[in-house]
Amino acid sequence: MKLLTLTFLFALPTLSYGFPPGYADKATKVKSDPNSFYKGIVKETKTIGNYTYAKIKGKDGDKWVATSTTKINVGDQVEFLKGQTMKDFHSKGLKKTFKEIYFSSSIKVLKSSKPMKSAVKKGSIKKLNYSIANIFEQAKTLKNKKVKLRAVVVKFSPSIMGKNWVHIQDGTNHKSQFDLVVTTQDKVKKGDTIIVDAKVAIDKDFGYGYKYPVLLENAKLRVE
């Protein structure tokens, strides 16, 4: 598991103001337990290049955290894996020195301060066997079964834990669930309309805060 997580963390891009040397080695030593995570409310946030910086107010006060580009808003309730702490870290991108800052593999939004909606217009994608709303709604029934759907790629993250990770949307929504994660060996790009053939998995926990109530695994993707 340590080797896989190390690969995941190194997948983050390296810029002049990026994560410090040795970050991945130290971050992988953090165990996946409640004390490894920090929860709070976003007080400030700024994205520069491929990194998002955020000031999080939690039970132990304000904490600064940096991670790869993540869409979060002031007022969001979030959780992040603490990772490595750096003292007096200077960000050239922000032209700011942080007295203390965490470098995290991710920031997870627990509760959004703004209504979230699909980036894909409702009704713009012609349905195949299933829609994304169908899959979220029928997840327990569809567990370990094959599904086929058409959707748009909204995010593509290659070579993480030996897989490519794809976020897809089709404009449908079930109880505010509209973004579905797919694992695959195929390559696509953001904006592609694709046909997805995959198996439905539920309650997948990869450790280090990466939990998916619904996931499409080992998908075959075809760009239309």
Would you kindly provide a written description of the structure presented here, covering whatever features stand out?
The structure is a single chain. The chain is mainly beta. It starts with a helix and ends with a strand. The longest helix is centred in the first third of the chain and has 9 residues, at 2-10. It is elongated and about 55 Å long. Helix content is 11%, strand content 48%.
Summarize the structure.
The chain has helices at 2-10, 23-27, 132-137, 139-142; strands spanning 37-48, 51-58, 61-68, 77-81, 84-91, 96-103, 107-111, 146-160, 163-169, 180-184, 193-205, 211-223.
Features:
224 residues, mainly beta, 7-stranded mixed beta sheet, 5-stranded mixed barrel, 4 helices, elongated, disordered N terminus
Describe the secondary-structure layout:
Blueprint (H helix, E strand, L loop, with lengths): L1 H9 L12 H5 L9 E12 L2 E8 L2 E8 L8 E5 L2 E8 L4 E8 L3 E5 L20 H6 L1 H4 L3 E15 L2 E7 L10 E5 L8 E13 L5 E13 L1
Parallel strand pairs: 3-6, 10-12
Antiparallel strand pairs: 1-2, 1-4, 2-3, 4-7, 5-6, 8-9, 8-11, 9-10, 11-12
Find the structural class using helix and strand composition. Answer: mainly beta
| Termini separation | 36 Å
Strand order of the largest sheet: 5-6-3-2-1-4-7
Q: How many DSSP H or I helices?
A: 4
The percent of residues in helical segments reads 10-25%
Can you give the mean pLDDT?
83
